[in-house]
Amino acid sequence: MGSDCGVWLAKYLLCIFNFLFFVIGTIVLGTGIWLAVDKASLIALLKMVESDQINQFTQPRVIEQMAYVLIVIGAVMFFMSFLGYCGAIRESRCLLTTVSGTWGGQV
């Protein structure tokens, strides 16, 4: 009985954490796409804050590079957390092995 409770707890904790990473990955991906499409709104937003350090980040080239980095990071988080969530819910050994091997865990 104690073993069943531990398995149940591990399953749902894994689901919760993968869902949280899924939401965070979606936000990062959405922010990256927004920056890639509309650089001018971020530049206008940053111009409101008068600082010499922020002026370095208002260059369109810097914003474009930051957008692509955010898109890649968000897409990887989105995809991997989706696989982890589906693997945990369905108790799929294949999906969980794929996710744990990709995130750097040892199988």
UniProtKB/TrEMBL annotation:
The chain crosses the membrane at residues 12-37, 66-86. PROSITE patterns: TM4_1. InterPro entries: Tetraspanin/Peripherin, Tetraspanin_CS. It comes from the Eukaryota. GO terms for cellular component: plasma membrane. It is found in: Membrane. Keywords: Membrane, Transmembrane, Transmembrane helix. It is a multi-pass membrane protein. Belongs to the tetraspanin (TM4SF) family. This is (Mediterranean fruit fly) hypothetical protein. It comes from Ceratitis capitata. The lineage of its organism: Eukaryota, Metazoa, Ecdysozoa, Arthropoda, Hexapoda.
